[in-house]
Write a structure and sequence with these properties.
single chain, mainly alpha, Farnesyl Diphosphate Synthase, two-stranded antiparallel sheet, 15 helices, binds geranylgeranyl diphosphate
C-alpha cells in the first residue's frame, strides 16, 4: 500500500462528493456559495477525510459509507480555518496558498461562509446510513461534541485568551491542542469506525489513535511554523512566534518537540494492535503526518 496514492485517491473521492453535495456557485446567494467553495476547494491536504477513510477500512468498511463523514469533517475544518483567519482572531492573509476568505469576499461574507460550512456539515449526515451498532443520533453526538463549546471552540477560546501571556505551562498548551486540533481528528477516526460498524474495542482503539495522532499533528504544525517558508506551507509562517503564542518549540526546543511527536505517534501505533494487521492505511497515514513538511 502506497500512502501517497491512498491520500490522493481519498482526496479525489471526497472532492467529488463535496462538489455534488455543496450548492453550486450559481445557487443564490451566489456570493456565499462562491465563498464556501473558494475555501473548500483551495487545496487543503484532506487529512481528516483520509483519517475517516483509513479508519473505516481498518474496520472492514467501504468507501461509499464513509464519504458523508469524510465530507462533514472537512466542512467543519474549513469553517474553522475561515473563522480562525478573521481579523478578530488570528488575522491571516493567506491560507491554502491563496488569499484568505475575508481578503477576497470581505469579513461579513467570510463569517457567513464559515457559518454555512459548519451547518452543511450536519446536512452531510443525511447521505449516511445507520449501521447495526450506530444510528444518526450517534453520528450527530459525535460531530456536535467535537465541534462544540467544550472541544474545538473551547480550544480557540483558550488560544485567544492565552495570547501574550508568559505564565502558560505545558499543561495549558496541551489543553488547547487537545481541543483545537485533536478533537476533530479523533472525531474523524471514530466516525470512520462507526461508518464501518466498528466493534466497541475497535472504536476504543480508534479513539486513542485519533487523539494521539491529533496531538502529534499539532506538534509537527508548531515545528513547521518555524522551519518552513510561507510559500511551502501555503499560510503565513512564523505566525505563532510573532503573535507571542506558546508553542511546543518555544517551550521545549525543536529537537525535543520532534522527539515528542515521535513518541505520540508510537503510542498511536500501539493502539492499532486491535486491528490485527488490517490497519495498514492508518499506520501509513500516521507515519506520513509525522514526516510531512507542509
Ligand atoms: C467559532 C469563531 C469561531 C472560530 C473557530 C476552532 C477554530 C475557530 C479554529 C481552529 C482552527 C485551527 C487553526 C486549528 C489548528 C489545527 C490545524 C493545525 C489546522 C491546519 O490543518 P491542516 O494542516 O490544514 O490539515 P489544510 O489546509 O491542509 O486542511
Amino acid at each position: 500500500m502506497d500512502i501517497k496514492d491512498f491520500l490522493d485517491k481519498s482526496a479525489v473521492s471526497v472532492e467529488k462528493a463535496l462538489n455534488k453535495w455543496v450548492p453550486s456557485a450559481r445557487t443564490k446567494p451566489t456570493t456565499l456559495h462562491t465563498a464556501m467553495r473558494y475555501s473548500l476547494f483551495a487545496g487543503g491536504k484532506r487529512v481528516r477525510p483520509a483519517l475517516v477513510m483509513a479508519s473505516s477500512l481498518a474496520c472492514g468498511g467501504d468507501e461509499s459509507a464513509a464519504l458523508p463523514f469524510a465530507c462533514a469533517v472537512e466542512c467543519i475544518h474549513t469553517y474553522s480555518l475561515i473563522h480562525d483567519d478573521l481579523p478578530c482572531m488570528d488575522d491571516d492573509d493567506f491560507r491554502r496558498g491563496k488569499p484568505t476568505s475575508h481578503k477576497v469576499y470581505g469579513e461579513g461574507i467570510a463569517v457567513l461562509a464559515g457559518d454555512a460550512l459548519l451547518t452543511i456539515a450536519f446536512e452531510m449526515l443525511q447521505h449516511a446510513g445507520p449501521t447495526k451498532r450506530y444510528t444518526h443520533r450517534d453520528f450527530l453526538a459525535e460531530l456536535t461534541s467535537a465541534a462544540g463549546s467544550r472541544q474545538l471552540i473551547a480550544g480557540q477560546v483558550a488560544d485567544l485568551e492565552g495570547e501574550g501571556r508568559d505564565d502558560l505551562k505545558l499543561s495549558d498548551l496541551k489543553f488547547i491542542h487537545e481541543r483545537k486540533t485533536s478533537a476533530l481528528l479523533q472525531c474523524s477516526a471514530r466516525l470512520g469506525g462507526m461508518a464501518a460498524n466498528a466493534t466497541p474495542r475497535q472504536l476504543e482503539a480508534l479513539t486513542e489513535f485519533g487523539y494521539k495522532v491529533g496531538l502529534a499533528f499539532q506538534v509537527i504544525d508548531d515545528i513547521l511554523d518555524v522551519t518552513q517558508t510561507s510559500e511551502n506551507l501555503g499560510k503565513t509562517a512564523g505566525k505563532d512566534v510573532n503573535a507571542g503564542k506558546l508553542t511546543y518549540p518555544s517551550l521545549m526546543g525543536l529537537e525535543r518537540s520532534r522527539k515528542y511527536a515521535e513518541k505520540l505517534t508510537n503510542e498511536a501505533f500501539a493502539s492499532l494492535l486491535a486491528f490485527r494487521g488490517r490497519a495498514t492505511h492508518l499506520k501509513g497515514l500516521a507515519e506520513f503526518l509525522l514526516a510531512r513538511d507542509r
